[in-house]
Amino acid sequence: MAFRQVKDLLEWIYDFHVRLSDQYTALADQQIDERMKMALVFLADRELRMRSAMANYLEDADKRLLTTWLIDHQDFGHTNVLERVPLCTGCNDVHDVLANVMAAHQLLKDMYLLRAELAAMPEEVELFQQLAVHQDAEARLQSRDIARLAIY
Questions:
Q1: Helix and strand tally (H, E) in the chain?
Q2: Cβ contact 10:124 at 8 Å
Q3: Whole-angstrom Cα distance, residue 94 to residue 40?
Q4: Helix (H, G, I), strand (E, B), or coil: what is residue 5?
Q5: Under a CB-based contact definition with an 8 Å cutoff, are residues 135 and 112 in contact?
Q6: What is the DSSP letter of 74?
Q7: CB-side exposure of 77: number of CA atoms within 13 Å?
Q8: Residue 63: other Cβ atoms inside 10 A
Q9: What is the pLDDT along the chain (152 residues), one digit of tens a residue?
Q10: Tell me, what DSSP letter sits at residue 69?
């Protein structure tokens, strides 16, 4: 399936946050190390917050923007994107978790910036630029908090 309209992509992003939260929760449940468990529970919570924010946006957004057709609606292979974010294989410490987190953030940010470049209308450009800004802010927040956890 290809993303055809802006809402298709935003719904996929919603699902991305759900699946990533589920992955972090499953990993947290397997952890013996308390720091690793705390980091993964924190990350699962942050993903759920991003999911909720996306759900709120989808509910309140301008329907004209949501139904905007994407210029390049070819198959994107989006079902496999989450597989590119490792399930923390070989995670030995909080730094390994952070590396995985940053990979997920970069993946979304790159996608947002590409969508902004390919946008058909100014509102679409603004939406995807703002999503990229928010993704950067979330990456900084998570990086800072996980670094604090690693220190203690």
A1: 5, 0
A2: no
A3: 9
A4: strand
A5: yes
A6: S
A7: 4
A8: 8
A9: 456 899 999 999 999 999 889 989 988 998 898 988 999 999 999 999 999 999 999 999 999 999 999 876 545 545 555 665 556 655 678 888 888 888 889 989 999 999 999 998 999 999 999 999 999 999 999 999 998 887 87
A10: B
